[in-house]
Specification:
Layout: H1 5-17, E1 20-24, H2 31-39, E2 44-48, H3 52-57, H4 61-66, E3 71-75, H5 83-91, E4 99-103, H6 108-117, E5 122-126, H7 140-146, H8 150-153, H9 158-179, H10 186-199, E6 202-203, H11 206-213, H12 217-229, E7 233-236, E8 252-255, H13 258-264, H14 270-274, H15 279-294, E9 300-304, E10 310-317, E11 320-326, H16 336-345, E12 349-354, E13 360-363, E14 366-370
Parallel strand pairs: 1-4, 1-5, 2-3, 3-4, 11-12, 12-14
Antiparallel strand pairs: 6-8, 7-8, 9-10, 10-11, 13-14
Helix pairs in contact: 7-13, 9-10, 9-13, 11-12
Length: 382
């Protein structure tokens, strides 16, 4: 078992600040395991709300929960949505000291229900698959190829990992999406996923995808929102302001897990991946997710102009501007786009993240940085 101290710390901080913490993330990313790890060595009560005995224990939920102390963990809370109103009543009691940790299958409706019913009382913590900081340095390539889902990364062979990922995709399409109340044929969504895999790391173009699939722009946007809301796809929004250059205003799309991307592209090992035309885009998305796990800001964007200048990641921290370029190259160099970003966006610093081993400056404001060292991007607050 891989310990996840950074996420345990995030849960501890959230539960200290707020009476209710919602642990979010895609299905099978390890939410239940993390919650049980968190409950160890603490006063904690655990309820699996898909378990009939636990449902029976909560026939009178207000009575059952009001007498508990410490941390109460409610797993698969979407199975008993009436508990949201009960939690609001309990946490509003003057003498309440109990903290509630709620988990649920990735669902936009779950987030909406928690936000509306528990407004001002809930904090959200997002769990990802395994990150570089959690695996051994020698396993970086395996993490990229297999992705961070625990059962995929820890599988005993590449074949077993690929089999698990294929099962994940099939179950998501055939069971999870219908459970969300969404009536979309599994074959259509599978085709959409596969097409998105070829657009990974590119600007979203609903019209182009719609023409290819024979659906309207609105339908394509709806499909994309489903995958974004269930933590499968990341929509990285563009940075734009009143600048002289015409800037792109559509998001870039990335598969959040590189293993799922590779499964859809039929890339089951490193050799197949390394020889594929989309290897650079795959590594960019992988490096982007690892970087976003380090950054302590939600103000993250990309920047692109219609003249061709672009910056993979632009973020704000403590009132300052920073940029990151991701280059799948052993010898990255300063590009015209980087110089344009320096001149136009005026970042305090720009890092070029690459798969090498040495860190070195190439400009007074540009540093080449190995992916293994991205922890330096965890910038201190001023």
């Amino acid at each position: 078992m891989i310990k996840r101290p950074s996420f345990i710390e995030k849960l501890s901080d959230a539960l200290r600040r707020s009476p209710v913490t919602a642990l979010l993330g895609p299905r099978q990313c390890g939410k239940t395991t993390l919650a049980r790890m968190f409950g160890q060595n603490r006063t904690a009560a655990y309820f699996d709300l898909e378990s009939r005995p636990d449902q029976t224990r909560l026939q009178n939920p207000e009575l059952a929960l009001s007498g508990l102390q410490g941390t109460v963990i409610l797993d698969e809370i979407q199975s008993m949505p009436e508990l949201f109103d009960v939690l609001r009543v309990l946490v509003d009691r003057p003498k309440n000291r109990t903290r509630f940790l709620i988990l649920g299958s990735a669902s936009p409706e779950l987030i909406k229900k928690a936000s509306e019913t528990l407004a001002g009382r809930v904090e959200f913590v997002e769990l990802t698959g395994f990150t570089l900081a959690e695996v051994k340095p020698k396993d970086e390539r395996q993490l990229w190829v297999r992705g961070g889902f625990p059962r995929s990364f820890l599988a005993s062979s590449e074949k077993d990992s690929a089999s698990w990922r294929e099962g994940f995709i099939r179950t998501f399409l055939e069971r999870d999406i219908p459970r969300l109340g969404i009536s979309i044929p599994a074959a259509s969504m599978r085709r959409f996923w596969t097409m998105l895999a070829h657009y990974h790391g590119q600007i979203w173009n609903a019209s182009e995808l719609g023409r290819a699939m024979g659906f309207s722009d609105k339908t394509m946007r709806g499909y994309l929102e489903i995958l974004s809301g269930t933590f499968i796809i990341r929509q990285l929004m563009p940075w734009h302001e009143n600048l002289s250059k015409r800037q792109v205003k559509a998001p870039k799309i990335y598969f959040r897990d590189s293993g799922i991307l590779h499964q859809l592209l039929s890339l089951t090992d490193f050799h197949a991946l390394n020889g594929h035309p989309r290897v650079g885009a795959s590594w960019e998305g992988f490096a982007l997710e690892q970087t976003l796990n380090v950054l302590e800001t939600k103000q993250v964007y990309f920047w692109s102009t219609y003249s061709g200048a672009e910056l993979d990641l632009f973020f704000l921290h403590s009132g300052r501007r920073y940029g990151v370029e991701f280059k799948y190259s052993e010898t990255p160099v300063i590009t015209k786009s980087m110089r344009s970003a320096l001149d136009t966006l005026k970042p305090d610093h720009l890092w070029v993240v690459y798969p090498g081993i040495a860190k070195y400056p190439v400009h007074e404001k540009i540093t080449v940085l190995p992916l293994k060292d991205i922890g330096v991007l965890k910038l201190p607050s001023r």
